[in-house]
Design brief:
The chain has 466 residues and is of the alpha/beta class. The protein folds into 2 domains: 259 residues, Putative sugar-binding, N-terminal domain (Rossmann fold), CATH 3.40.50.10840; 194 residues, Four-carbon acid sugar kinase, nucleotide binding domain (Molybdenum Cofactor Biosythetic Enzyme, Chain A). It is built from 15 helices and 18 strands. A 15-stranded mixed beta sheet has the order 9-10-5-11-4-1-3-2-16-17-18-15-12-14-13, sandwiched between helices. Helix 7 crosses helix 8 and helix 11 packs across helix 12.
């Protein structure tokens, strides 16, 4: 059996010896669920990105939140980030376009934008694009070029899952070659998509992976099959060998491949002992929920049953009607409630869609902005910890609500799930406050209640104050 720790060390040694940096363009803040002790940049700033990539072999996320933008806006923002990221280290930067493990997002457009911008800077297009959407801890994996999402303990071809019916990024295909053909409207013919099979990985090893990669040219898409980190780590060794042979690549991935490409070690879930800053405070926490997927609604119901919460439902129809007095009044109520209670703020659960995918996205953005305004207005109460549920919500709360520009990923509260950020550059009231980023589509019914329980348990001073 391969020594996984030795493989990860080999990956890191290669990266450091060649002074390669890894920049992850993350289309929502939940992509860091498989990593730890790396920095997150929330703004397009060459200075902030450079600070986050100081060390050779380092990894930094840049939160673009492009899943919450229209395609043209997403393309422009990707180009801005790539220009900033390559300004200092040029083609010594590997670029991951990190997106949803259930395939939602601007898949084709973002990769094409990144390749075009990169080529304008370094003088050549990439040879291949590795497509590796797995998120193992959440039960998302790829076998036989078909991508699966585990639902209620049963692996389901992702095109048959609720995620494929997304109002903005819906699709029908589960086979990743067919999926690329579907999203590109035929510009990426499925028969032209290369594949690295499980057999190639497990039987041929890094050399066989390298041989497939060496066949790629003209930004060819390459589907990566995998059911474990060991599979991805073997692929990374093949990638490194192909780079040494002169090939260049981009990566469109879910959360798991980021950890493999960086060579990061696994880390146990965070516990109460990892939040010493909470030990002496009797302040209360703030829970924000914007996601509308069914998993989130069940989790909200469970955390409400746990008790000890002041609850505020934000009325989405009123928000969309543009009532200017509604949000300041809600913020004032939340701010007052934080003096005595943990506070749950959630958007009304009825899903309001637009007449088109673009209109639905605009609605989601308007609602998310409203949640962020509530947070900004309540921040003077100095919450002890903050949880944001939903990708668009957690990004907008971080940037607009907390003024966050750069943060450190402390780790996760569950194996590979639910990251905790430590704000480094942010509004004074938010610096150092544990900020929990919780994807809408992960966890079981009790996961949100568990996260709240961990944070409450880190505050013995609250028990003494009762």
């Amino acid at each position: 059996m391969t020594d996984s720790a030795a493989v990860r060390q080999q990956i890191r040694d290669w990266r450091e010896s060649r002074s390669r940096r890894l920049v992850v363009l993350d289309d929502d803040p939940t992509g860091s669920q498989s990593v730890h002790d790396v920095q997150i940049v929330t703004v397009v700033s060459e200075a902030e990105i450079t600070r986050a990539l100081t060390d050779r072999g380092s990894t930094a996320f840049v939160l673009t939140n492009t899943r919450g933008l229209q395609e043209a806006e997403a393309i422009e923002l990707n180009k801005q980030v790539v220009t900033s990221a390559l300004a200092v280290h040029g083609d010594g930067v590997d670029i991951i376009s990190r997106s949803d493990s259930t395939l939602r997002g601007h898949v084709i457009a973002e990769i094409e934008a990144i390749d075009e911008c990169r080529a304008g800077i370094v003088g050549r297009h990439v040879d291949g694009v590795l497509f590796a959407p797995a998120f193992f801890e959440a039960g998302r994996f790829t076998v036989g070029d078909t991508h699966y999402a585990t639902v209620d303990g049963v692996p389901v071809p992702v095109g048959k899952s609720e995620f494929a019916r997304d109002a903005t990024f819906g699709y029908a295909s589960s086979n990743l070659g067919d999926f690329l053909g579907e999203l590109s409207h035929g510009r990426v013919p499925p028969e032209d998509v290369l594949s690295i099979s499980l057999e190639t990985i497990t039987e041929g090893g890094p050399d066989a992976v390298r041989d497939v990669l060496m066949r790629a040219s003209g930004a060819a898409w390459i589907v990566i099959n995998a059911t474990s980190y060991e599979h991805y780590e073997t692929v990374v060794l093949g990638v490194q060998a192909a780079i040494d042979a002169g090939r260049t690549f981009l990566f469109r991935t879910g959360p798991s491949f980021v950890r493999a490409l960086a060579g990061l070690e696994p880390k146990d879930p965070l516990s109460t002992a990892d939040f010493p800053q909470l030990g002496s405070t009797d302040a209360h926490g703030l829970i924000l929920v914007g996601s509308h997927v069914s998993q989130t609604s069940r989790q909200v119901a469970a955390v409400r049953l746990s008790g000890g919460l002041a609850e505020f439902e934000l009325n989405v129809p009123l928000i969309l009607a543009g009532d200017r007095s509604y949000i300041p009044a809600a913020a004032a109520s939340v701010r007052a409630a934080l003096a005595n209670h943990d506070v749950l703020v959630y958007t009304s659960r009825e899903v309001i869609g637009g007449e088109s995918a673009a209109a639905s996205l605009d609605i989601a953005r308007t609602v998310s902005n409203a949640v962020s305004e509530v947070v900004a207005g309540a921040l003077a109460a100095r919450p002890a910890w903050i949880i944001a549920k939903g990708g668009i919500t957690s990004h907008d709360v971080a940037v607009r609500g907390l003024g966050m520009r750069r943060a450190r990923v402390l780790g996760q509260l569950l194996p590979g799930l639910v990251s905790v950020f430590e704000p480094l550059t942010a509004s004074p009231e938010a610096r150092g406050v544990p900020y929990v980023v919780f994807a809408g589509n992960v966890g079981d019914d009790d996961t949100l209640a568990h996260v709240v329980s961990v944070l409450r348990s880190a505050q013995p001073a609250r028990e003494l104050a009762r």
